[in-house]
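Internal tracking record. Fields below are filled automatically when a chain is submitted to the structure queue. Please do not edit lines marked as system-generated. If the sequence contains nonstandard residues, flag them in the REMARKS field before resubmitting.
Queue: standard
Priority: normal
Entity type: single polypeptide chain
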Amino acid sequence: MDILNNWAFVGIFAVMAPVFPALPIVIAWLLRPHKPNVLKSQTYECGVETVGDTWVQFRVQYYIYGLIFLVFDVEMVLLFPWAVAYNRLDLFAFAAGFLFIFLLADGLIYAWRKDVLAWK
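SYSTEM-GENERATED OUTPUT FOLLOWS
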C-alpha cells in the first residue's frame, strides 16, 4: 500500500503537468480584448505594401552558412572552459578536447571538399 502512495504523487504530477502551462494560456485567451479589424488582419511588412510576388525562395546555402556558424559558435562555448583549465587537465580530458577539435575540423574539411562553402 505504501508503494501506491508513492506512485500517487507521480500520477498527480502527470495530470497537473499539462494544466500549469495550459491554464495561463486559456485565461489569457478568455480575457483578451477581441476587436477584429480589416486593417489589423493585413500583412505588415515594415509599413510598406508589397508589390508583386511576395514568395521569395532563398538558397539552401544560406542555411548551411548559418548552421556552420552555429556549430563553430557552440564549439567556442564548449572549448572555452577547456582552454581556461588547460594546465590542470589530465590526459583523458586533453585527448577528449583534441578529439572534439578533430571531429569539427573533419566536418569543416568535408564541407569544404563538397564545395558547400563556395559562395555562388
